[in-house]
């Protein structure tokens, strides 16, 4: 909040965001506070930009729940993905994308941590594909290891049926073949040790 003190270039007033295809409303948000927390909002509401004096701004690239979570985080420092267990991973993915877009690095890190904590049988494959798409090597490795360590649970949860990315499928097949080779090597070593 110290950034809002003594800076005459900060915009004054409130903005209402019209979010998503249905233009759902997030009303009466302080432009000044958004600018203090995000360089993108600082640019958007900066001198010479049409949004500076606008009462409403359309945000079409996201959904209401995710954008609300972004605004709530910026204004309160409260990181909340909601209560729905299955939806938390998807919300973390969506919110991480917004954090990258609006250049909020701490929120991006919180989302990355939440994603790593969300890896479970039902989420491992969708998160693996998302990590592959985003280029998140840490999450990718974690999901690959989880699938390798819990294949029956992932399969029972429908994770295999959720697989859509051919490159990810090839990677998982390669992991499985590597595990088979390791098991065969271990079996050979046991046979030699027993003889």
Automatic annotation (TrEMBL):
Listed InterPro entries: BTB/POZ_dom, SKP1/BTB/POZ_sf
Ranges for domain BTB: 13-83
Classification via SMART domains: BTB
Pfam families: BTB
PANTHER family given in the database record: BTB (POZ) DOMAIN-CONTAINING 2B-RELATED (PTHR45774:SF3), BTB/POZ DOMAIN-CONTAINING (PTHR45774)
Entry protein name: BTB domain-containing protein
Organism: Emiliania huxleyi (strain CCMP1516)
Taxonomic lineage: Eukaryota, Haptista, Haptophyta, Prymnesiophyceae, Isochrysidales
């Amino acid at each position: 909040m110290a950034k809002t003190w003594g800076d005459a270039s900060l915009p004054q007033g409130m903005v209402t965001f019209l979010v998503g295809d249905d233009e759902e409303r997030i009303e009466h948000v302080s432009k000044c506070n958004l600018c203090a927390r995000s360089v993108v909002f600082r640019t958007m509401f900066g001198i010479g930009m049409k949004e500076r004096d606008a009462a409403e701004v359309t945000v079409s690239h996201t959904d209401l729940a995710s954008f609300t979570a972004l605004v709530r985080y910026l204004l309160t420092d409260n990181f909340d993905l909601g209560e729905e267990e299955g939806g938390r991973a998807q919300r973390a993915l969506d919110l991480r994308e917004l954090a990258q877009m609006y250049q909020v690095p701490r929120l991006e890190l919180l989302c990355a941590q939440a994603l790593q904590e969300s890896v479970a049988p039902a989420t491992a494959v969708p998160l693996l594909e998302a990590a592959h798409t985003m280029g998140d090597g840490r999450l990718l490795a974690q999901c690959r290891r989880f699938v390798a360590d819990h294949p029956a649970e992932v399969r029972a949860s429908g994770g295999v049926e959720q697989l859509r990315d051919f490159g990810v499928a090839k990677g998982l097949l390669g992991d499985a073949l590597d595990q088979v080779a390791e098991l065969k090597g271990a079996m050979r070593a046991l046979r030699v040790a027993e003889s």
